[in-house]
Amino acid sequence: MALEPTKCSYDACARFAKEKNLCLTHHRWMLQYLSNAYMKDHAAPTVLDPKIQRMNPNRKCKADQCWSYARTGGYCTMHGGGRKCKVRNCHTASQTGGYCRTHGGGSKCREPRCADFARLRGLCLQHNLEAERAGRLPPAPELAQTA
Fold first, then answer.
1. Which residues contact 117 (CB under 8 A, 6 or more apart)?
2. In angstroms, rounded to a whole number, what is the distance separating the alpha carbons of residues 70 and 81?
3. What gap in Å lies between CA 89 and CA 140, rounded to an integer?
4. What share of the chain is helix, strand, coil (3-state, %, to 5)?
5. Is 12 helix (H, G, I), strand (E, B) or coil?
6. Which residue intervals of 1-140 are DSSP H helices?
7. Is the pLDDT of residue 143 over 50?
8. Range 42-59 average pLDDT
9. How many CB atoms lie within 10 A of CB 56?
10. Domain boundaries, the chain
11. Nearest CA-CA partner of 67 in 108, 26, 36
12. Stated pTM of the model
């Protein structure tokens, strides 16, 4: 059973959707936007997502129109920031273990005999979906709604 990739639903974005029919960039932007709008309307600020709570608002990527979190050098990984792969002359962002996925970095799915990369809760997308349907996992966290 192959999962059909879907495009981000934000305007003319060509990236693939990962969360709530949005790419990760627009999903993070929406979380930040909703969080800021909520905080303006309420005296006691409540953060919608724990990732935003850790995120320093001054660490935004220096690239124009990018809302991603800045890594080493002031840019997000998509714009060249962050740690690079340990392999000589490889300029790709590193994953788990200090290597890019091409050179063996990144976490693999914890299901036996699966070579795909883990995406959520230590499982690849397909095994995550199967485990969720079988009731072996709690549902993935939903985007909190503002009241």
1. 101, 106, 107, 108, 109, 124
2. 7
3. 38
4. 30, 10, 60
5. coil
6. 24-41, 50-54, 125-133
7. no
8. 53
9. 8
10. 1-55
11. 26
12. 0.44
